[in-house]
# Entry
Amino acid sequence: MRELVGGGLPAPKVINPKVSPLIRISPFDDKKFAINEKANHLKGIIRIGYNATNLSQYDEFGREIVYIPITILSDALLPGKGKRGKNCGKMAAIGVCENCGTKIPLKSACYQPLCPSCWHKWRFRRAKGYLTKMEGFRRYIYVNRGRNWKVSKFHHVIASPPPNLEYPLLAEAKTPEKVRFFNRLVKDAKEIAEFVGFRDGGLMIFHPYRLKWPCPECNQWFKPDELKEHLSKVHLKDEKDIKEIIEKIREQDDDPINEGRRWREILKKDNWRDYVYYSPHFHVFGVANTIDGLACKRAYEKFGWVVHRVTKGKSKVSVGNLKDLARSLLYCLSHVGILKDEKGRMIRTIRWFGDISHFKTFNKKVEKEVLVALLKAQKRLKDAPEIVIGKIKLICPKCGSMLKIISIEELDEEEREKILKEFQSKDPPEKAG
# Structure
């Protein structure tokens, strides 16, 4: 008998590479599920249930292959937990009142995800582009497939890889190991997403961490399994009380509004890593007819990937309208994983896949509806400063007259140095990840 885990599903079989053949991931049909002893070690091999990070082999060309564990991505950062951009916060222009002569400095922004002061602007700008593309693609599917709303619905799915996943990579290659590993992980996640129902593709957002659960008795934070053990041993709770506590915490986690606010409070802390634990997963958004539950079960039994369709509370609806999608996207982008390779270069952790990748829309009506939905969603989440859209009229705080904007570069050197000395202020301390 195999032990039951994760909602009554059987645990993945242990594969010993020295005895058993390897399983290959490719298009998901019954023929390709067959075991292939001669599978190429460099094409889509997943090893489950075998921890041997130092194991190395050689391919047919004599090149050394090393198995890299999924923990290579555990040093990911979160938005706002890095350093400012090069010129972020520096004075870029001044507003001069033509009536009373008041001067007001205007500072620049870098719109970088790691910037402590600009990450919410980066999130809003990205969410606007993603949402416009997805809503335009949904309308395109609706028109070209018989105007049937059932085939043009938004769905939100979470796909989690096996915790002990390893990939075989060449020991010597020009591309950094972390980049190659993440690309392989994304490739498998795309195939899993297409298999469960996203035939036309979608958007994938990588999350490296999950929130720990707070103990209601002592306000300490634990992983879900550790919390049960803590309640039983330290607070002497019986199984019935533990079950009630866990259910209450899960109800709060199922609500994206509550969880989004918890992330907001935790990201304000310098020791934010004490409140999260490493559990990589992907949030997948796309247009599909339905998400096949049997396909999700097969994906777990064959490859160890846990696929969960996100719904609104006790409802069966995943994403009800454009406003729900905007709120979900803003929530996911608030704690998206930000990876850097060994050379310090950024790795793209938000990926398109399928037919929607090449889709473009220039519909002004869609852009306007998306903008309204985003503003309403951000107002409800309350996890970032308010975004102001459009041109802002700068008014003098003393007399109420309009300000004339003058760029720093247009001024003479003497006048520029005088203004910079006058308005020079110390920048806030940079936060390290």
In short: Residues 82-106+402-433 form one domain.
